[in-house]
Design brief:
With about 375 residues, the protein is α/β, with parallel strands linked by helices. The chain contains 11 helices and 16 strands. Helix 3 packs parallel to helix 4. The model has no long low-confidence stretch (mean pLDDT about 95). The structure holds pyridoxal-5'-phosphate. Pyridoxal-5'-phosphate binds next to helix 3 and helix 4.
């Protein structure tokens, strides 16, 4: 059996065509595909503004810079998530306030957010973990009630829908919400390296675009009016992104098929539980996480799959497991994160997986862990 990768980009003739077009045009840094990509993404998502960025990590960095956060400002985060958003907060010296994750959804436990809000809290950063969804309706209400900014990291759930509305957008005028996604090669929509910010606020959108471009005021005079950097995506990568946006229906259909395949074929295995997803949402998952009884079983399952040419991944680690972040080892807010870090296993979810691949993966799991 050929190796089954954990993640693979879904690119083909259209991406090559647009990429060559961008190359032939000789616009290989800035260029018309960038604006086209942003406009087309806004239309897809149903938001007013999209700002493309050179990666997902910098998408959050730009958002944070645009909010003019001050010393002692606090941001609430889940206690288990991919490291990149946490590193950005840490590098800006923002106080990170971790909240326990729910052991069924693997997401920030919304019941526990309000008691962590202080007079210094500026924002809630919800990071939708492993392709699932935090209880976003409840979290939006908490943000509104407490006059907080809501930042949503939708990298692992890009294109998921809450009824008819894409996760990450809100038309609620009482809420300041900014969402962002990585467009890394492992993500549902990719530009190779890349990121995208979605928002409805023109002032913030203009400010983010300005910080993305060195804080420029008048390029002809080399005149700048605020601090900024270079966070731009190239025209070449935006061209790939434009092609990816044309494949959305194909991508969603295939991801749905893969999710259903795993559910149907693993549901009778008593050793496995699925991530609990909310009703009325259509999920487009980045990975397919499952949870098993203990660390020993989890690691032996990973070894078994890897030995059989299937690359799967363990959970992210609880934030207090990594010493450089400076969280207390015995803080109870991390109890559920520590529980999950030992038990979660993420199965591949990329579009190139065939039915044969899926059957092979499910058979290995079912035959070894009845
Ligand atoms: C949830 C989440 N946030 C942020 C990032 C960082 O994005 P990038 O790798 O594009 O910088 C990733 C993935 O890579 C991610 O999964």
């Amino acid at each position: 059996m050929k190796k089954i990768n954990f993640a693979e980009p879904f690119t083909g003739k259209l991406e090559k065509k647009y990429l060559n077009d961008a190359l032939d045009s000789r616009w290989i840094s800035k260029g018309p595909y960038v604006e086209k990509f942003e406009n087309n993404f806004s239309k897809v998502m149903g938001c007013k503004f999209s700002v493309s960025v050179n990666n997902g990590t910098n998408a959050l960095l730009l958002i944070l810079l645009s909010l003019d956060l001050k010393k002692n400002d606090e941001i609430i985060v889940p206690s288990l998530c991919y490291i990149s958003p946490i590193h950005m907060l840490k590098m800006l010296k923002i106080k990170i306030v971790p909240v326990a994750v729910d052991i069924n959804t693997f997401q920030i436990d919304h019941h526990k957010i309000e008691k962590k809000i202080t007079k210094n809290t500026k924002a809630i950063l919800t990071i939708h973990n492993f392709g699932g969804i935090s209880n976003i309706r409840k979290i939006e209400n908490i943000a509104k009630k407490n006059n907080l900014i809501l930042i949503e990291d939708i990298s692992e759930t890009l294109l998921s829908k809450d009824k008819k509305k894409y996760v990450g957008v809100s038309n609620d005028l009482k809420l300041t919400k900014l969402s962002f996604s990585s467009l890394h090669a492992t993500k549902t929509i990719t530009t190779g390296e890349g990121g995208i910010i979605f928002l409805n606020n023109r002032i913030l959108s203009d400010k983010i675009k300005n910080i993305r471009d060195h804080g420029i005021k008048d390029p002809k005079k080399y005149l700048y009016h605020r601090l900024g950097g270079n966070f731009r995506i190239s025209n070449l990568l935006a061209a790939i992104g434009c092609a990816q946006l044309k494949r959305i229906n194909e991508i969603k259909k295939r991801k749905k098929f893969i999710i259903n395949y795993y559910i149907n074929n693993l549901t009778n295995n008593r050793n496995i539980k699925f991530q609990k997803d909310p009703k009325n949402f259509t999920l487009v998952k980045w990975g397919f996480p499952i949870i098993v009884k203990n660390l020993k079983i989890r690691n032996s399952l990973i070894n078994q799959l890897n030995k059989n040419s299937t690359i799967c991944r363990p959970s992210f680690l609880s934030l207090n497991y990594m010493q450089h972040l400076g969280f207390k080892k015995n803080d109870k807010e991390f109890k559920s994160a520590r529980y999950l870090q030992d038990r979660i296993l993420i199965l591949p979810m990329h579009i190139n997986l065939s039915s044969q691949n899926l059957s092979y993966i499910c058979n290995i799991i079912n035959n070894n862990f009845k």
